């Protein structure tokens, strides 16, 4: 009987000897991913798997870009998708074999996604980093939702009307402002087709179109100002002219057909925009996004109150506002918002803008009931 146990005893003896000599015996499933914070503090040349959110591409020791990525050679990870401090980021070198799948120039939609990278914990760009990566996984999951919106809206409790509008204005005015050129890449992320990561969805027509077909030619998509930029004459200036809470992809032809019209029901069919109608003084998008359009307009009327060098944007019940800083028709917009509540796409877009780009939210996506609280 004792002979049956000799192999096991021999294995135990070998393990003990290896331990005495300093060689660890680690089960294959014992490797557990560490946080970015741990990886930053453990720059000792050891091999580790690190899980974090993609927050940009490092281009120097203190610079991480979040758009216009120069190549596919590197990315930065953080423990939060909304992290903006480079001191809390891990710089990851991307080997050639992984660049097509994880390089940000080729895959800008990875921003905000959680991934796990295995490699050597050592400096990169003279900054805490990870090099010689042997594995990349993840990137298809949801973005970090960030803080509870209930905390974001602290101070609004019990308020209605002008008091609520004022409180929300103060909260959402704390934002990062984009340039008009940066809007292109932002929309490629916020309006990405959930069923085709190479495309964006046009707001009015609903058409899925290649991200690369942005421009000014017929059948390209361009940057539609849902609050028409002539209503307040803010143009494409950084601020209301570049606020992606109301900038959306749309076909050049459809964008031109909408022009600077107010919103209202009725009219005749719009070419290349199934479900859209227009007449001489108003435009209506397809029914599936009428609530989305209304909530973007409500956001603009709260965010821009005339205290930051731009016009005070307000709502009224007119469809002949011209270049005045007003947008209508408020009675119709309220009805659209009630009939078409926020869906998963609109909610995800709000999260992406908050976590990756402007770091402010559209309160009417989070709380549609506030529409009637402010405009009874």
UniProtKB/TrEMBL annotation:
SUPFAM superfamilies: His-Me finger endonucleases. InterPro entries: Endonuclease-I (IPR007346), His-Me_finger_sf (IPR044925), YhcR_N (IPR045939). Residues 1-30 form the signal peptide. Residues 34-136 form the Endonuclease YhcR N-terminal domain. Keywords: Endonuclease, Hydrolase, Nuclease, Signal. The keyword Nuclease applies. GO terms for molecular function: endonuclease activity; hydrolase activity. This is Endonuclease.
